[in-house]
């Protein structure tokens, strides 16, 4: 049995960060957390690029372009969408999460979802560095781990030490 895990010790990693200016009171804390994590894990500042976008809805476009550029090993998306009295919240959350997932799958690199989707400002504050930790920090740690996991998977696949057998359903399921 092979168990693959990414380590939290980056070799050489280049990180793009996309941060939303909307709810900047929250996103600036998320960004501080992400940068703190990257510094603690010895990612040089020259290997980090931060792009500010107007709001959460704009995050997927810039994340997708950063990921597709091949200049980054991972992209971290940071924002805060707080429920209001209209359905706008639901549309924004849905499209942002879909867009970030699509960016990751298309570029085949980790595009980390650090967009808080909360019911109120208090929940957002808790997740940006108080009771619930800092989700920006968590996303940066996840990015490092995922980059290392991909490198490990690529290395094992290239060495033929990891055989991948496709799933084949022998007979259709019958009621």
Main sheet characteristics: 4 strands, parallel
The share of residues in helices is 40-55%
- Whole-angstrom Rg: 18 Å
**How much of the sequence is in beta strands?**
15-25%
Q: Supply the CATH superfamily name.
A: Lumazine/riboflavin synthase
Distance between the termini: 33 Å
Number of domains: 1
Count up the helices: 5
Mean pLDDT comes to: 91
CATH class annotation: Alpha Beta
Structural class: alpha/beta
| Gross CATH architecture | 3-Layer(aba) Sandwich
Shape: globular
* CATH fold-type name: Rossmann fold
Taken in chain order, the helices and strands follow as EHEHEHEHH
* Lateral arrangement of strands in the main beta sheet: 2-1-3-4
Folded structure, characterized:
- The protein has a single domain (15-159), classed as Lumazine/riboflavin synthase (Rossmann fold, 3-Layer(aba) Sandwich), CATH 3.40.50.
- Helix 2 (59-68) packs parallel to helix 3.
- 45% of the residues lie in helices and 17% in strands.
- The chain has a four-stranded parallel sheet, sandwiched between helices.
- The radius of gyration is 18 Å and the shape is globular.
- It is of the alpha/beta class and 175 residues long.
- Helix 1 links the parallel strand 1 and strand 2.
- One of its GO terms (cellular component) is riboflavin synthase complex.
- One of its GO terms (biological process) is riboflavin biosynthetic process.
- (2S)-2-hydroxy-3-oxobutyl phosphate binds at residues 85-86, 127.
- This is 6,7-dimethyl-8-ribityllumazine synthase.
- Its EC number is 2.5.1.78.
